[in-house]
């Protein structure tokens, strides 16, 4: 699988690699997620048919969660340590090392893509590449669920792992529309103890 190497991508990979154990211990179980995240991902998963890609799957907990709901699902992530951990914890599922900037999946071949906080490190200039990839690999009507850090303006901040970006829902929704998606629902949530949430569900528009 092609695995682009740029200074930014190398930094993301190396930063998560260095903290993969810690990240996995903190977030590597759906039990540690906000109950409404589970509800949102679960209800979205019930609207799509496979195959589904957990794009930027990290430790693979959401891949397993969706498989548990009967979906044919696999995971891809930049970080080999995450993929190793996911394969160990969920040996019946398929996980590959790869980049969301050039996904090794045929055009129009998927029914769903979950991108749960996996585009948070893409700058506003760079995010169009993986969004275009999601549009390419989804068949018409295929579903996308994007989770991200929501905020009043597009801005970079010092995420615990490496620089991340906040997005107003409307700005990220426009990126999806420009790439050929129809936005179905948007969600925001704030509150202590959990990551601030922005989430968008969208479907790949039929006109290509
Ligand atoms: C905040 S973590 C989220 C992981 C998982 N989706 C979750 O909810 O726990 C961000 C993930 O995106 C992955 N990622 C970031 N940029 C990526 C890229 N260009 N290609 C593939 N994976 C990427 C990271 O390796 C990391 O696992």
Question: Which molecules other than protein and nucleic acid are bound?
Answer: S-adenosylmethionine
Q: What portion of the residues fall into strands of 2 or more residues? A: 25-35%
Top-tier CATH class: Alpha Beta
Q: Level of helix content?
A: 25-40%
Average of the residue pLDDT scores: 94
The domain count comes to 1
The CATH architecture comes to 3-Layer(aba) Sandwich
Shape summary: globular
Largest sheet: 9 strands, mixed
CATH topology: Rossmann fold
As a whole number of angstroms, the C-alpha radius of gyration is 15 Å
Give a verbal description of the structure.
- It is a single chain.
- The longest helix has 12 residues, at 7-18.
- A hairpin with a 7-residue loop joins strand 8 (181-189) and strand 9.
- The two termini are 26 Å apart.
- With 208 residues, the protein is of the alpha/beta class.
- It is 33% helix and 27% strand.
- Strands 1, 2, 3, 4, 5, 6, 7, 8 and 9 form a 9-stranded mixed β-sheet that branches.
- The structure holds S-adenosylmethionine.
- S-adenosylmethionine is lined by residues 9, 12, 16, 27, 56-58, 62, 77-79, 82, 99-101, 116-118, 120-121.
List the helices and strands and how they pair.
Blueprint (H helix, E strand, L loop, with lengths): L6 H12 L1 H8 L7 H11 L6 E4 L5 H7 L5 E5 L2 H10 L4 E4 L12 E7 L11 H10 E13 L4 E3 L6 E4 L1 H11 L1 E9 L7 E8 L4
Parallel strand pairs: 1-2, 1-4, 2-3, 4-5, 5-7
Antiparallel strand pairs: 5-9, 6-7, 8-9
The structure holds S-adenosylmethionine.
The site of S-adenosylmethionine (SAM) has 20 residues, from helix 1.
């Amino acid at each position: 699988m092609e695995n682009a190497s740029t200074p930014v991508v190398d930094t993301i990979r190396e930063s998560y690699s260095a903290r993969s154990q810690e990240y996995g211990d903190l977030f590597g179980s759906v039990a540690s997620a906000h109950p409404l995240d589970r509800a949102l991902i679960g209800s979205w998963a019930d609207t799509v048919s496979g195959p589904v890609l957990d794009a930027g799957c990290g430790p693979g907990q959401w891949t397993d969660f969706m498989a548990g709901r009967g979906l044919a699902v696999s995971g891809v992530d930049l970080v080999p340590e995450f993929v190793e951990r996911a394969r160990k914890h969920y040996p019946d599922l398929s996980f590959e090392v790869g980049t969301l900037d050039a996904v090794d999946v045929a055009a129009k071949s998927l029914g769903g893509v979950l991108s749960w906080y996996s585009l948070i490190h893409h700058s506003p200039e760079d995010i169009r590449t993986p969004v275009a990839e999601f549009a390419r690999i989804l068949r018409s009507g295929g579903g996308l669920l994007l989770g991200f850090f929501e905020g009043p303006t597009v801005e970079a901040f010092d995420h615990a792992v490496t620089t991340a970006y906040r997005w107003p829902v409307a700005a990220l929704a426009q990126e999806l529309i420009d790439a050929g998606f129809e936005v179905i629902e948007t969600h925001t949530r704030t509150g202590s103890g959990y990551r601030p949430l922005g989430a968008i569900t969208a479907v790949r528009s039929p006109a290509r």
